[in-house]
Each structure stands twice: as structure tokens, then as C-alpha cells.
Design goal:
Structural class: alpha/beta
Number of domains: 2
Shape: globular
Strand content: 15-25%
Number of helices: 10
CATH topology of the largest domain: Metallo-beta-lactamase, Chain A
Length: 362
């Protein structure tokens, strides 16, 4: 496992915090940014704003429109949390530069911020901060293939690559030197093929279960693609369905009615079963990065007994090779790691990032 270890402080722009909501962050300033709604990036978010908003009425939380919807859905049960979010949320449109005013060294200042799709989960973004002649990119969690980099308009200036003074970089899989992950297109093609074969073998009566990570966010690409391909909705639990309400790119493709479909993405119990999928003709597909990252094999697929369980190497973070391509393409002046893989220290990851930077830019 890897550990998100960023303290929220963008050193080049004192007075803002990103993905960190501790007391020290509120002492530093009143302007906050959230890259996406996974729990390790939201620690103390509601409690922090609830505690400090009576004394700092100018508090702001900037995130994408989708992330703002997720937050409101997630905390809809709490009147106090809903009130706080109504006061502080400032949704940003993706790929649209926005001027944001904040306090810098106790003086009023303004910077240009662009939320760039990070392709990690629904609502996720990278933040490009442009302030006093410096360009700083915070990637948060992201997965971009090498062939996608040229198409990121916000990171180009009249066709030329934008000079980045600093990148705060997602280093989740930096140390997996021998591992590469298949593209999203390959993963979807493989899933379609497995489902087709299973339905053919069962005369269209087979049940399919697709693994979903513990966090409900991150499977939206697969949900949409499978639902469109097989012209059906994907079953999820009611509490998950509620989290996606108001999200037009997800809600049309899911249902909380288990009997309405034979394709499920609901949670299994520890024995790998539930009432929907406790049948002999169930195909269990497990798209995930962790089993692959923790194995010695470089094979993208691992099959269980009788081929009823199929593990697929599917990552929503960049592989080391993709990180090298990203660094080589944008050529930042400096980089700071955001994640420390298990078994390593921050100093070791910083040294590794510096070495890659020197290698790809020489």
C-alpha cells in the first residue's frame, strides 16, 4: 500500500491548502482546494470547516462541479454539514481558467487556477496554479497515458508546452519499475470479451459481478462502458446510488434494484458472496491494481479456479513508465512527491523523482 503524505502546503503560494484540512491549514489561510473525494484526501474536511467558519467567515473550498455534487450527496444527512458546504463550496468548471482572490502573506492577492481532468475518478482534477510569474501543477491522484499529454490545452501555451516551475506529483506506483499497466481501452475490451463468452456459455442467463473498490468512486468508466455495451443498468447498493444522484454521467447507468439486471457492482461479503451473486453461474471480474502491484508476475490477467474469477490489472494511477513520460514531456524545474509507497521514506522517493527528472531531461 502507499500513503498520501502531503501536508497541503503549496510552498510557492503561501496562504492556500490543497487536500488538507487540519488546524494548521486554517491558520495558514482561508482558501482551500480539493482534488477529488476519496477519503484520504478529505481527512477532517467537514470538522475543520465546521470548527473554523464562525471565526473565518471568508473560508472557501474550490473543487470541480462533480466533486461539489458528491460532497453534498455524501453529507446530505447532516443539516450542519450541509449548511457549512453551502457556505464554503466554490465549484470550478473543468479546463476553464478562473481568477481566485486570497490572502498572500496577509495581503490581498489573486491567482489564476485551472481544474484539469485527472482521469482518476469522477470529479477528480489536477490544479494548475499561475501566480506571480510561476506555474505550479498539483496532480492529486491521476492517470494519463503518454498519448493524451499533447491534448491537455491548459498545459500548453499557443501550442508550446507550458513551462512548469513545480509539479506536486502522484508517486503511488513510482517504485514498480518492472510493471506497466494496460490502457483503459485494453481493460474495457478484455472485460467485454469475458462477459460475451460467459453470456454465450450460459445462453444469456449468466450473472456477472464486477469488483468495486471500497471507495465507491473510481469505477465510473467501467460502469458507463458496460452499461452502454449491454444496454442495461449496473446494480449497486442504495447507499452508493444515493452518492451519484444529480450526476448525469453516472446515474442513468446504475440501479439499486438487484432484480433489474444481471450485471452487478455491489459489495461482496468476506467469503466473496452476496444474495445477488450466490449462484453457480456467476462470472466475477476483479479489475484492480493492488493484486498486480503486489505480485511478482507481469501478466495483466490472473484466473481463478474454473475461470469463474478473473483478476485484471486496472489502475487509476500512473505507472512508473507513464510518470517518466509525463515528466519528460513537461520538463518541470522541480518536483515534490505526494505519495510514499510502503517500505520507503519520503527522502528516498524524493531522490528517486530527482533521478528520473535528470535522466529523462538529459
Amino acid at each position: 500500500m502507499s500513503c498520501f503524505q502531503f501536508d497541503g502546503n503549496i510552498r510557492e503560494i503561501e496562504g492556500i491548502s490543497v487536500d488538507s484540512f487540519q488546524d494548521n491549514d486554517f491558520k495558514r489561510g482561508s482558501t482551500f482546494f480539493l482534488s477529488h473525494c476519496h477519503s484520504d484526501h478529505m481527512v477532517n474536511l467537514i470538522d475543520g470547516f465546521t470548527k473554523h467558519i464562525p471565526y473565518q467567515p471568508d473560508l472557501e473550498l474550490h473543487c470541480t462541479v462533480m466533486s461539489s455534487i458528491i460532497l453534498k450527496n455524501k453529507f446530505a444527512h447532516s443539516e450542519e454539514a450541509s449548511y457549512v458546504l453551502d457556505q464554503v463550496l466554490r465549484p470550478l468548471r473543468e479546463d476553464e481558467p478562473t481568477f481566485i482572490r486570497f490572502m498572500w502573506n496577509r495581503l490581498p492577492a489573486a491567482m489564476k487556477v485551472t481544474a484539469i481532468p485527472a482521469k482518476h475518478c469522477v470529479g477528480s482534477c489536477m490544479f494548475l496554479f499561475r501566480f506571480v510569474g510561476k506555474n505550479v501543477l498539483y496532480t492529486g491522484n491521476f492517470r494519463l497515458h503518454e498519448f493524451e499529454l499533447e491534448g491537455i490545452d491548459a498545459l500548453h501555451d499557443e501550442g508550446d508546452v507550458l513551462q512548469l516551475d513545480k509539479i506536486y506529483l502522484d508517486t503511488t506506483f513510482l517504485k514498480l519499475e518492472k510493471h506497466t499497466f494496460p490502457t483503459r481501452k485494453w481493460v474495457l475490451s478484455f472485460i467485454f470479451n469475458e462477459i460475451d463468452n460467459h453470456l454465450e456459455e450460459t445462453d444469456g442467463e449468466g450473472v456477472i459481478h464486477i469488483f468495486r473498490p471500497s471507495a465507491f468512486l473510481g469505477s465510473e468508466m467501467i460502469i458507463r462502458a458496460v452499461a452502454r455495451k449491454y444496454k442495461c443498468k449496473i446494480h449497486v447498493e442504495w447507499n452508493v446510488y444515493k452518492q451519484f444522484r444529480g450526476m448525469r454521467n453516472v446515474i442513468p447507468y446504475i440501479t439499486y434494484k438487484s432484480y433489474a439486471t444481471n450485471i452487478h457492482m455491489c459489495r461482496l461479503d468476506r467469503s466473496g458472496h452476496n444474495n445477488c451473486c450466490n449462484q453457480p453461474n456467476v462470472l466475477k471480474l476483479h479489475p484492480s491494481a493492488l493484486w498486480y502491484a503486489n505480485s511478482n508476475s507481469t501478466n495483466w490477467v490472473r484466473r481463478g479456479r474454473n475461470n469463474q474469477t478473473v483478476h485484471i490489472a486496472h489502475s487509476m494511477h500512473c505507472s512508473r513508465k507513464e510518470l517518466e513520460a509525463f515528466i519528460g514531456y513537461f520538463g518541470p524545474t522541480q518536483m515534490t512527491p505526494l505519495v510514499v509507497p510502503e517500505g520507503f521514506t519520503m527522502d528516498e522517493i524524493q531522490e528517486e523523482v530527482d533521478n528520473i527528472q535528470q535522466e529523462v531531461l538529459d
